[in-house]
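Team,

Forwarding the record for the chain on the shared tracking sheet. I've put the sequence and predicted structure together so nobody has to dig through attachments.
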Amino acid sequence: MNGLEERFRRARRRGCSLFIPYITGGYPDMESCRRIIEAMIQAGAEVIELGIPFSDPIADGVTIQESTFRALQAGATPRGVLELAGEISASHDISIAILTYLNPVYRMGLRRFMEEASRRGVDGIIIPDLPLEEAGPVKRIAMEYGVSLILLAAPTTSDERLARILDETMGFAYLVSLTGTTGERDALPPTAIQLLQRSKRLNPVKPVAVGFGVSRPSQAVELARLGADGVIAGSRIISEIRRSMESPEKAVGGLVREFVKALSSPGQ
């Protein structure tokens, strides 16, 4: 069993769900990003989703796109983000899942990227523009280096395809709550609940985490009560950084603590 999946299993035994905060690597700059991630860990996050900035982030909404632009302007690179992951994983008991697109992976070279990710202590990789039909070669190389390839499923995914994704994904399955891009939402879309329920019916064992549109701890709790093993929030984190530029690590730490506390016993 890989490290990511074991974290979910331990959380399930404790009767809680994991909160997975997302941050764009190098936003607002590399040193600030490092401090914010450390604040997330101190607040109780056990898994961090760390994005590699890319100039054409098709799955991301305006908030994360803006953070990507700022990070690129500040000089963030794929290698620099992987180095940051290595520094964090070497000094903390944490699982890091890298979110990237195919272009940066293939520009570095698939095998070289996975080797570097593994050397830097990365546990998983999420590639939104990698379709299931083309995931096989990527997964085989990722497995050689002990990196989990995390597959995504959308509300429009058929039951047959969803079952294959749940079977093939490593670590956990990333359930996209809606059709569209990332961004804060006032309420959970019905599609999020339907996709979660379908996933649990098709494969009750595989850990699943729901992302896209989660903005409040109350929404995370609702998903956890319906069976989500993890809840991912990105735009909400980035918005908090943007609102609190003088002390973003303090603001984000407080927000993450709220989510972690809410998910520590979501059934109560």
